[in-house]
Specification:
The complex is a heterodimer. Chain A has four domains: 118 residues, Immunoglobulin-like; 171 residues, Orthogonal Bundle (MetI-like fold), CATH 1.10.3720; 162 residues, no CATH class; 145 residues, no CATH class. Helices cover 65% and strands 11% of the residues of chain A. Chain A has 20 helices and 15 strands. In chain A, strands 1, 3, 5, 6, 7 and 9 form a six-stranded mixed sheet that branches. In chain A, strands 2-4-8 form a three-stranded antiparallel sheet, with no helix packed on it. In chain A, strands 10-15 form a two-stranded antiparallel ribbon. In chain A, a hairpin with a 2-residue loop joins strand 13 and strand 14. Chain B is globular and about 55 Å long. In chain B, the strands form two sheets. Chain B has a six-stranded mixed sheet with strand order 6-7-8-3-9-10, sandwiched between helices. A four-stranded antiparallel sheet of chain B has the order 2-1-4-5, covered by helices on one side. By secondary structure, chain B is of the alpha/beta class. In chain B, helix 5 crosses helix 6 and helix 6 runs parallel beside helix 7. Classes of the chains: A alpha+beta, B alpha/beta. Chains A and B meet through helix 6, helix 17 and helix 18 of A and helix 2, strand 6, helix 4 and helix 6 of B. The complex binds adenosine-5'-triphosphate (ATP) and magnesium ion. The site of adenosine-5'-triphosphate has 12 residues of chain B, from helix 1.
């Protein structure tokens, strides 16, 4: 670098560059302007301006309040077409103070102008003139020279208006009635029906947001740990351990659903039985669990005996967890009945529905009854959920247990195998795992055409591994002390990714699925105990076996596998994917599943909140002080303890803050989730807008604005306290 | 007896932080580790309890090969090795007593400990440990409300809960003023003399090493530069360890 002035060409180049950049920016914005259809002609059309004015006026005149009226009426006869013998005599004013009207003519033909005068009516309220044909329906006559049907009485309760005699065919000779109707306010103004409905829907909206937020806390808190890089990165496993535990997952699933689910169902029935039985079972299980967890800590050996004990412990824990889940489900189901009965005893049902309270004390009792009934509903649904999920829960518990047992038992053995065995074992296990993995993705791919892309993508990942491992072998750089990939190695892995993707794409005929939306054919290859194995899946499994086998054989069981990194990447990908789907779209799908109503909204918002909170939470974990984690690890605390004592205290305040923030967002979102049928005030708002009832819509808009700004303020001040 | 054989550590980025270190440290010795910043002191200490996995070499402590231990075994070993840090590494939002109790996690029932339950006798042990470092009255304060010296004493109390036989101290006084430094060092000395703990303590000041240690180990660029009593470090040796430009600073 020299310090002399830069050469001229450089300057000219820079100017040119700036001009080019400015041109491009201009082009982008002008195109954007056109695409978004910004134009000032339409807004100037008189009709549109008038429409806007009316809509805005209505929106800004929400009919929150309502006044009830009774009507004063006074009538006089009117003969159509004056008879030859002369007009009927006019009626003169009565002597008493009753409201009455006078008309300027007692007979006439269509389009004659008649002056109507009113006296002794209610002062300063609105009135209208009605024409009642002989044996016909009353019709409103608009006073001449006024834009409206309604007009007002003066301070003395008088009015004078002119109307035209209507054209009614074949009415000649009939006697019609002219009627003045004056509205008299009855009682004080009160909240309108619209307000009532909006308030009801607003409560629904707030609870929708509350439930969705609450339901999302636990899943997103758990996910956030897997999405935090600083916690996940240090977790490594040898490839052998990973393969063993992965290969055991499906076996564990089958065993779990075959052996554990009967236990769960048994416990469910127990729990559903008498409360006494359930309570005592829970107690007994609790003791068993405490005893089970307590014992092995005393023994400190790590030999075979200890390993056997930990296997037994794992099985015991699996059984206990399944049983407790079943018990809880059963308790929920029986609790439903119990609380329902209790609730309806407190608040008896009458023929017209729930009893109405006569005094405050009774109201309290009734309210308690209602609360108990709702509580029963809640735990009943939760119990039902556990009952429905018993089989998958048992499967998951079985899978996790068996794979952790597998790890425990093979940990030592895998460590001490020699190199040749390690590669052979790696090949075998790798083939099994690859087959399982691609079998799963292919089964998913059979569900929808574009999901078929999943298999080539996962296969490509494996292929990348195979190629970069092969490259290491060939160049002999496998024993490098310095990890971190070289450029050529990365290149080789990209080549592998591309090649294997293409190969799998072609082999599995994914192109047909992508282009024409055709699902893979369901040709059965063989039938395993009533479980069909499709040709397509088998093909994918074969590809997986080959790729996995080669990768495993090349790497060997002793290779370190960045298990934590993988978990991190997978969790992050799923969270980001979920987050990019708008809750409104999720709402659309859930409406199909669970029907129109707030439940669909709850599900949509919960799912979106899980993704969004999971990310926010995990970022908080990533920014904690790592010192305490190190300190606790150095004391010999296990991983769960380290998280509880070093991580959790640091993240609780931001978690609270972000949860509040999310509730805030959810309230906003739940106000519009109703647009797609997800319940809450949005549904009402949409209906009213479609019916052009802007005054009613105005009430909903106002309610939303008030609630959102209150929550905004509340959440901001709570957040401030915690950050 | 702690035996370190041919210990080498190469970080992920390829940097060789420790180069073939071999040492034998008998029980009950107070060893100071000195050296320039970046010479590998922290790396050495962290390799001993495997907060960092060494690349090569073995560490054998009381006939157990730490470098070959499985995760379970490692936790058993770590329970007996206390460690204190320059930044104290307390959980600032938790109370002092919770911080101290967390040193006992390797011993207590893992399930109950997750719900922050500790038996009464463990709480007494924690209070006794705080008593020993002279801050029992701060037990229910938040850790963040304590001064640096007090926080380091909480750190020592936390390791006392482990009933350690070996204490690793990574620049325990580097962020404290001279007077407080001495008081913290005195507690370490006390543990060494009263409880017979083996202490490995990295220090920045030779004068502190002289005042408290039986033996000084000097590292330079990851290599063992000096191993012997503090008195044997004369001006020439000092310049070899710290470089030509260095002058000795006293800390009183
Ligand atoms: N995680 C890491 N990755 C890469 N290099 C590292 C890492 N940790 C430390 N190093 C490097 O290793 C060398 C030794 O670091 P170490 O922390 O052991 O030094 P130290 O003697 O404790 O220094 P100080 O007195 O500043 O604490 C330094 O050059 C440092 O840059
Ligand atoms: Mg250091």
């Amino acid at each position: 670098m020299n310090d002399s002035t830069p050469p001229k060409t450089n300057n000219a180049l820079r100017t040119l560059l700036i001009i080019v950049v400015i041109t491009i920016v201009l082009a982008i914005y002008s195109y954007g302007w056109t695409v978004t259809d910004i134009n000032l002609d339409k807004p100037q059309e008189a009709q549109r301006q008038q429409n806007l004015g009316e809509a805005l006026r209505d929106l800004l005149s929400p009919n929150i309040f309502q006044q009830d009226y009774t009507f004063q009426a006074a009538t006089l006869p009117f003969v159509m077409t004056c008879p030859a013998e002369g007009a009927p005599a006019a009626v003169s004013a009565p002597a008493d103070a009753a409201p009455y009207i006078l008309i300027s003519a007692t007979c006439g033909v269509a389009n004659d102008v008649v002056t109507v005068q009113g006296f002794n009516f209610h002062p300063e309220t609105f009135a209208r003139i009605e024409w009642i044909p002989d044996g016909g329906e009353a019709r409103v006559r608009q006073p001449i020279g006024r834009g409206e049907d309604n007009f007002f009485t003066d301070a003395l309760g008088r009015f004078e208006v002119q109307i035209e005699v209507p054209q009614i065919r074949g009415s000649s000779g009939q006697t019609h009635i002219i009627q003045a109707r004056v509205a008299v306010p009855a009682g004080l103004p009160h909240f309108s029906n619209t307000t009532g409905v909006v308030l009801e829907k607003m409560v629904e909206t707030i609870f929708l947001a509350l439930i969705a937020t609450t339901l999302s806390i636990l899943p997103s808190a758990i996910l956030s740990f897997f999405a935090a890089h600083n916690l996940m990165k240090p977790i490594r496993m040898t490839l052998g351990n990973l393969l063993v535990s992965f290969a055991l997952l499906p076996v564990g699933w089958l065993l779990g659903s075959a052996l554990l689910s009967p236990i769960g169902t048994f416990a469910l029935n127990l729990g559903q039985g008498t409360l006494f039985g359930a309570g005592s079972t829970a107690l007994a299980l609790g003791f068993a669990m405490v005893a089970a967890v307590r014992k092995p800590r005393v023994v400190e050996t790590t030999g075979w005996e200890a390993r056997l004990r930990s296997v037994l412990l794992a099985v015991l824990v699996a059984i206990i967890v399944t049983a407790v889940v079943g018990l809880l489900g059963g308790l929920g189901l029986s609790g439903d009945m119990f609380f329902h009965n209790l609730g309806s005893t407190l608040r008896p049902q009458t023929a017209e529905g729930p009893a109405v309270a006569a005094n405050f004390g009774q109201w309290l009792v009734y309210a308690l009854g209602d609360v108990l009934t709702s509580f029963g509903n809640m735990i009943g649904t939760l119990g039902q959920l556990l009952q429905l999920l018993m089989l998958p829960i048992a499967g998951v518990i079985g899978a996790v247990t068996l794979s952790s047992i597998g790890t425990t038992l093979t940990l030592d053995a895998l460590k001490h195998v020699d190199r040749v065995t390690s590669h052979m074992l790696g090949g075998t296990l790798g083939a099994i795992c690859g087959a399982i993995l691609l079998g799963i993705t292919a089964s998913i791919g059979m569900q929808a055409a574009w999901l078929g892309l999943l298999t080539p993508l996962v296969a490509a990942g494996l292929g990348g591994g195979v190629f970069s491992l092969a490259y290491q072998r060939l160049t002999g750089s496998k024993q490098r002390k310095i990890p971190g990939e070289s450029t050529s190695q990365r290149l080789s892995s990209w080549v592998g990714i591309a090649l294997v993707f293409l190969a799998t794409f072609v082999l599995l005929n994914v192109e047909r699925a992508v282009v024409e939306g055709v699902l893979p054919t369901q040709t059965e290859l063989l039938n395993l105990f009533g479980m069909p194995i499709y040709f397509y899946v088998a093909e994918a499994m074969l590809i997986g076996a080959v790729l996995g086998g080669v990768a495993g054989a090349l790497a060997g069981t002793r290779a370190a596998f960045p298990f934590g990194d993988m978990l991190y990447t997978t969790t992050r990908t799923i969270l980001n994917g979920l987050r990019s789907i708008e809750p409104l779209i999720m709402g659309l799908v859930f409406v199909i599943w669970v029907g129109i109503g707030p439940f669909a909204g709850v599900l949509a918002l919960t799912l979106h909140s899980i993704a969004s909170l999971g990310k926010l939470y995990s970022e908080q974990i990533e920014s904690i002080d790592s010192g305490p984690i190190e300190a606790l690890q150095s004391t010999g605390a296990n991983q769960l303890q380290t998280i509880m004592y070093a991580v959790v205290p640091q993240i609780i305040p931001p978690y609270i803050a972000f949860t509040m923030y999310r509730w805030d967002i959810n309230v906003r979102m739940s106000t519009i989730i109703g647009f797609v049928g997800g319940g809450g005030v949005g549904f009402l708002l949409q209906q009213q807008i479609n019916l052009l009832r802007y005054r009613e819509a105005g009430v909903a808009v106002l309610a939303i604005a008030i609630v959102v700004s209150i929550l905004d303020y509340a959440s901001a001040s709570i957040r401030q306290r915690y950050i | 007896m702690l035996i370190i054989e041919n210990l080498t550590k190469i970080y992920d980025n390829g940097f060789k932080a420790l180069d073939n270190i071999s040492l034998e440290i008998p029980d009950g010795q107070f060893v100071a580790i000195i050296g320039l910043s970046g010479s590998g002191k922290s790396t050495l200490l962290r390799c001993i309890n495997r907060l960092i996995d060494p690349t090569e070499g073995r560490i054998i402590w009381n006939d157990i090969d730490i470098t070959a231990a499985t995760d379970d075994e490692l936790r058993q070993i770590r329970r007996r090795i206390g460690m204190i840090f320059q930044q104290f590494n307390l959980v600032k939002r938790s109370s002092v007593i919770t911080n101290v109790l967390s040193g006992r996690l390797g011993y207590v029932n893992p399930v109950f400990s997750l719900f922050n339950y500790f038996p009464g006798k463990e709480k007494e042990r924690a209070l006794a440990a705080l008593d020993r470092v002279g801050i029992r009255e701060k037990a229910y304060n938040r850790a963040s409300a304590l001064s640096g010296g007090q926080q380091q004493r909480v750190g020592i109390a936390r390791t006392l809960m482990q009933e350690p036989e070996l204490m690793l101290a990574d620049e325990p006084v580097a962020s404290l003023d001279p007077a407080t430094s001495h008081s913290v060092m005195k507690y370490l000395q006390l543990l060494n003399e009263e409880d017979g703990l083996t202490i490995l303590c990295s220090l920045h000041f030779l004068s502190l090493a002289r005042a408290y240690s039986h033996r000084v180990i000097a590292l330079k660029d990851g290599k063992l530069e000096f191993d012997g009593p503090a008195q044997a470090i004369d001006d020439e040796r000092f310049k070899m360890i710290y470089g030509e430009e260095a002058v000795q600073v006293e800390i009183h």
